[in-house]
Amino acid sequence: MRKAGDHDDDQTLEQRKARQGHRVHINTGAICNNNCLFCMESDREARRSRISGVTPADVRALLEDNRGAEEVCFTSGEPTLNPNLATFAAWSRELGYDRVSVMTNGRLLSHVPTAARLVEAGMNRFYISIHGHEPKLHDGLTRTPGSFAQTVRGIDVVKALKRRARGPLDLHTSTVINKRNLPHLADVHRFLRARGVDQIVFNVMQANGGADTYFDQLFPRYVDTAAMFRRLLDAEAATHQGERLMAFLVDIPACVTEGIPDFNRGFVEAHSHYGTVDEAAHLLGGEVSGDRFAAGDMVEITREDIDRARRSWHPRCASCRYRSGCEGVWDNYLSRFGWDEFQPVT
Crossing angle for the helix pair 222-239 and 185-194, nearest 10 degrees? Predict the structure, then answer.
């Protein structure tokens, strides 16, 4: 999940970060019907074993413990494959959560009764992953023939439900940037804009799991990603003069995106991510202390925990205006490319 453009248009990147609320991620998808090359879980069977330990009782306890949070998001694997997802959404609204969301590839949302059931239960934001503007590109990255058609249909179904929803219903997309789709960012943006997506988010890859396995084949340089996103903004601005584009570049060090309007620079917000003890050990690369237990066998993992375990900062970063909110640079990225492209912004 990312944070981009949710507040006043004129706020700086630092101001938006300072205003972010408490968000809760709960893992509910033990399996997935896609097989993305860059998936953060390279061992699908191990993920199934870890996430299967999350019971409805665990979810209920976490929802109760985190009342007052700005958002609860159901994530990991493919949450729509969990038959209890509508129940989880209903519990969330019952307990007072204003925003109830799901991170999904959108394929099951192509089935209208499934999507409608989630909306009726209280789901009011959908983050739908789509990684290309045409089947060859998307299906090649998901390694799942036919996934593009179902995902696009899912987007269209949510858009239709949005028109007749009783309250706010947000439709966001997430496109994971890699060497295959980087040249096509503008094409992806135009395709999704035409389908009425509220926010089109381009996420830099999390450099673990499959993205680490295929790093050299998939991971573009940050400077190249920033340059291509600037080109997208320039091209779209020329076509849609005077209109603010709801396109956002996320999870990339801010120092390499200078020159991109603050409005279009997003970030992965601070959040509490809850999973099993085994999953915490997997994400953090080691044993997990007992003081992390949150409810039953569930463990809290913060965004900062993952950053400290897998990312680094250069000593010169201390002088950068973005240091307090910077996630750092992936260690496996640095081992290949070094520090040259990261210069402090003072």
Answer: 40
Give first-to-last CA distance, the chain, whole Å: 28
Question: What letter would DSSP give residue 103?
Answer: E
Which percentage of the chain shows pLDDT scores above 90? 61
Q: Which CATH homologous superfamily contains domain 13-337?
A: Aldolase class I (3.20.20.70)
Q: Which residue has the higher pLDDT, 126 or 18?
A: 126
With the C-alpha atoms ordered 309, 209, 265, 27, is the resulting torsion angle positive or negative? Answer: negative
Q: Are 286 and 45 in contact (CB under 8 A)?
A: no
Per-residue pLDDT tens over the stretch 78-100: 999 999 999 999 999 999 999 99
Q: How far apart are CA 176 and CA 181, in angstroms?
A: 9
Place of tokens 């953090």: 284
Count Cα neighbours of 161 within 13 Å in the Cβ-side half-sphere. 27
| Nearest-10 Cα torsion for 52, 95, 74, 15 | -140
pTM for the structure as a whole: 0.88
Cβ partners under 8 Å of residue 46, min gap 6: 282
Number of other CB atoms surrounding residue 319 within 10 Å: 10
Per the DSSP assignment, residues forming a β-bridge with 104 are 128
For 30, 50, 65, 74, 171, the CA distances from 162, given in Å and listed in that order, are 28, 34, 30, 20, 8
φ and ψ at residue 235, rounded to 5 degrees:
-65, -45
300, 274 Cβ separation under 8 angstroms: yes
- At 141-153, the pLDDT tens digits run 999 999 999 999 9
Alpha helices in 34-133 (DSSP H): 44-51, 56-65, 85-94, 112-121
